TrEMBL record:
<feature type="transmembrane region" description="Helical">
    <location>
        <begin position="139"/>
        <end position="157"/>
    </location>
</feature>
<keyword id="KW-0285">Flavoprotein</keyword>
<keyword id="KW-0560">Oxidoreductase</keyword>
<keyword id="KW-0274">FAD</keyword>
<keyword id="KW-0408">Iron</keyword>
<keyword id="KW-0479">Metal-binding</keyword>
<dbReference type="InterPro" id="IPR050415">
    <property type="entry name" value="MRET"/>
</dbReference>
<dbReference type="Pfam" id="PF08022">
    <property type="entry name" value="FAD_binding_8"/>
</dbReference>
<keyword id="KW-0472">Membrane</keyword>
<feature type="transmembrane region" description="Helical">
    <location>
        <begin position="54"/>
        <end position="78"/>
    </location>
</feature>
<dbReference type="InterPro" id="IPR017938">
    <property type="entry name" value="Riboflavin_synthase-like_b-brl"/>
</dbReference>
<dbReference type="InterPro" id="IPR017927">
    <property type="entry name" value="FAD-bd_FR_type"/>
</dbReference>
<feature type="transmembrane region" description="Helical">
    <location>
        <begin position="206"/>
        <end position="223"/>
    </location>
</feature>
<dbReference type="InterPro" id="IPR013112">
    <property type="entry name" value="FAD-bd_8"/>
</dbReference>
<keyword id="KW-1133">Transmembrane helix</keyword>
<feature type="domain" description="FAD-binding FR-type">
    <location>
        <begin position="228"/>
        <end position="328"/>
    </location>
</feature>
<dbReference type="InterPro" id="IPR013130">
    <property type="entry name" value="Fe3_Rdtase_TM_dom"/>
</dbReference>
Length: 452
């Protein structure tokens, strides 16, 4: 039986993901079309509608489409294995954000049109409509609260707001979305004109939400719990690497079943106070071997700061592996790896794999001082060229990862496959420098570290 060439499999993977993204776009359009059909079927088609009725119908359409897209948005980040394998978690998160922006706009439009339509129909002022209709109806008050929760979560997802919030606050706000959806859903099925007189539509609408909830519970709760019981993973030891980076060694008889590749990450939940209520993305710095695996974690938030206090024996729940950072490598024998801070975790795993494969590897590690170079000792022991890029940018006088610096450090950079991992600023600087030196986008792979 013929065995597929691994490089050929890698070459086909981007094509599969493009097909998957097209499929997601098709599902989104199908959902929008179904909401539109539901809206059209519920319209009164006799007589000429009054202006207030037209505006109210527009509000109903915006609300129906927003509700369908909310369900699709949740399914995109439910970490369904089939979707993650075929499309990639990064692409799914991208679609989640794009759909979320549309949901936010539609919800605001729904509220504005609903209030305006009611004012025109009832011939009331804004204040009298709010006090006499909206706030006088408990179901509408529920809907207003639910809508507010969803809008707040959407606004805090903007990059500027996200960067100013502690992860734990951001996570709590996003958990409140489920309450907001429940409150809004109750308003839809009890008061929505398209469902009150149509048992079939109401049943279908309930089924959509039940299916969405079932997938989330299975993917985010039951699946990881089953893996916890099967793999029996615990913290073996915590090793300080620098003042703000630690390595957490995990041990478990089922680690080999995870099939993790270099450059991938897990959503990690340590089952101990301070870590229990949220899972955070951490990359693997040493692949499973002899029942052990290593995560290297930088102190970038409350959760990662507390990793230093983890005790041996703590149970660990892993979701994944995720990510395609190291799976897009082409046939080039020469590789450039660029790491910043704790971004050296996935870079170290890639360096080890590429060195074993006999590739020509150059590794640039950006840091302010030698004391901020985690894993330096083991990296210098590999068959590669290790180049620490030290000093603050203000002291160096130029961008240490700009085209001039990169060109001087790695003269043959244009012929290399490049992998970059670090803070968003480092990733932008390095990728801009690589492009300026003639490295095509298809040979630049990058991953930004998230606050945790």
């Amino acid at each position: 039986m013929a065995v597929a060439d691994p490089l050929d499999v890698i070459a086909r993977r981007p094509a599969r993901r493009r097909t998957g993204s097209i499929a997601v776009a098709g599902i989104v359009l199908l959902g929008v079309g179904a909401a539109g059909a539901c809206w059209w079927a519920g319209l009164p088609h006799a007589g000429l509608p009054l202006p207030g009725d037209v505006v109210a119908s527009g509000a109903q359409l915006a609300g129906l489409v927003a509700s369908v897209l909310v369900c699709l948005q949740l399914l995109l980040i439910a970490r369904v294995p089939l979707l993650v394998r075929s499309i990639g978690l990064g692409a799914l998160v991208g679609w989640h954000r794009r759909v979320g922006s549309s949901v936010l706009i539609l919800i605001v439009l729904h509220v504005l049109l609903a209030v305006l339509g009611a004012m025109l129909i009832d011939r009331r002022t804004l204040w009298s409509e709010l006090t006499g209709t909206v706030f006088a109806d408990p179901a509408l008050v529920q809907a207003v609260i639910g809508t507010a929760l969803i809008v707040v979560a959407g606004l805090t997802s903007a990059r500027m707001a996200r960067s100013r919030l502690r992860y734990e606050w951001w996570y709590a706000v996003h958990l409140s979305v489920y309450l907001g959806i429940f409150l809004s859903f109750a308003h839809q099925v009890r008061s929505g004109v398209h469902f009150v007189d149509s048992p079939a539509m109401r049943t279908g609408w309930i089924a959509l939400y039940v299916l969405t909830a079932a997938v989330i519970v299975l993917g985010r709760l039951l699946g990881p719990t089953a893996r916890l019981l099967r793999h029996r993973i615990r913290v073996e030891q915590v090793v300080p690497e620098t003042a703000d980076v630690v390595s957490v060694w995990l041990r478990g008889p089922g680690l080999w079943r995870l099939r993790v590749r270099a450059g991938q990450f897990f959503y990690v939940r340590f089952l101990t106070p301070g870590h229990l209520w949220s899972a955070h993305p951490y990359s693997v710095s040493t692949l499973p071997q002899l029942g052990r695996m290593r995560l290297t974690i930088g102190a970038s938030g409350d959760h990662s700061n507390a990793a230093r206090q983890l005790r041996p024996g703590t149970r660990v729940l892993l979701e994944g592996p995720f990510g395609s950072f190291g799976t897009g490598c082409g046939a080039e024998s020469r590789v450039l790896l660029i790491a910043g801070g704790s971004g050296v975790g996935p870079i170290a795993a890639l360096a080890r794999e590429f060195s074993r494969a006999g590739r020509d590897v150059v590794l640039l590690h950006r840091a302010s001082s030698p004391a901020q170079l985690p894993l330096r000792g083991e990296l210098t022991g590999l068959s590669l060229r290790f180049l620490p890029v030290l000093g603050r940018r203000s002291e160096l006088g130029r961008d240490p990862l700009g085209p001039e610096s990169l060109g001087a450090l790695v003269p043959d950079v244009a012929g290399r496959e490049a992998f970059v991992c670090g803070s968003p600023g480092l990733v932008r600087a390095a990728t801009d420098g690589l492009r300026a030196l003639g490295v095509p986008d298809r040979r630049i792979h990058h991953e930004e570290l998230e606050l945790a």
